[in-house]
Amino acid sequence: MMRKLFIIGCFLWLYSIGFSQQFGTILVTDYDDVTASVEGVSVYLGDELLGTTDHLGSFHLPRKVKGKLTLSRTGYQSQEVRFKSRKDASIDVYLQIVQQLYDQQRAETEKLIYATCAPEDVAATYPQNKQDEVMTTAMNDYFESYMRYPKRAVANKEQGTVQALLLIEADGTISCVQLVKRVSFELDKEAFRLLTMMPSWNPARQNGTPIASSYLINLPFSLPK
Question: Per-residue pLDDT averaged across 78-93, rounded?
Fold first, then answer.
């Protein structure tokens, strides 16, 4: 009996999902972090609340709609989008946080990414690391796969090359990322994120023994075409 009820429940759930998708879906993402879905966004048609986005930032229209929808959530700027229901219709919406909150987050982030972590005499403690061709190719593949061009940088037409000094310990881990050539806050932040997320390196060696080293790396940013 319980198994039968479970099967019926699953069927009704799948049916409701399929039925709601006939009217379209809205996907809401954070403007400054395209990997972050925004949950709890209220979706209005005029003064009527249609519902809110789930933990995946997704909202399935409960009925057929045509016109202007308003998306609203505390801490974010409200946004209006035009939507016309049809089967499998989908729209991506990127919500920006309110300016005051953005300024606060930016101030905190600047302290982190522009901090000085390398000693004054780097060469004395961290001789230069020379990566082989295989490692260089792996780094380029990593940046190409994981780089997310910031939407604010695209809107402001920002591009250029960020240069950073890396301190690599004897076990291959990166202990310091210090930006020595900046482009803009948004691109600097993305460069810092990529570099601090990098997997371990091949450490430099002296007489066959792994040693700490430094590496000057360039990250070019070109506006998407």
Answer: 90
109 or 203, higher pLDDT: 109
Q: CATH homologous superfamily for 15-95?
A: Carboxypeptidase-like, regulatory domain (2.60.40.1120)
Spatial distance between the Cα atoms of 81 and 26, rounded to a whole number of angstroms: 10
CA distance 131 to 143: 16
| CATH 3.30.1150 boundaries in the chain | 99-221
- What's the whole-model pTM score? 0.82
User: Would you state the structure tokens that stand for residue 103, as one six-digit string?
Assistant: 């300024």
Q: Cα dist. 200→53, 62, 112, 183 in Å?
A: 38, 48, 21, 26
The CATH architecture annotation of domain 99-221 reads 2-Layer Sandwich (3.30)
- The confidence score (pLDDT) of residue 93 equals 96
| 50/46 Cα distance (integer angstroms) | 10
Q: Is the pLDDT of residue 9 over 90?
A: no
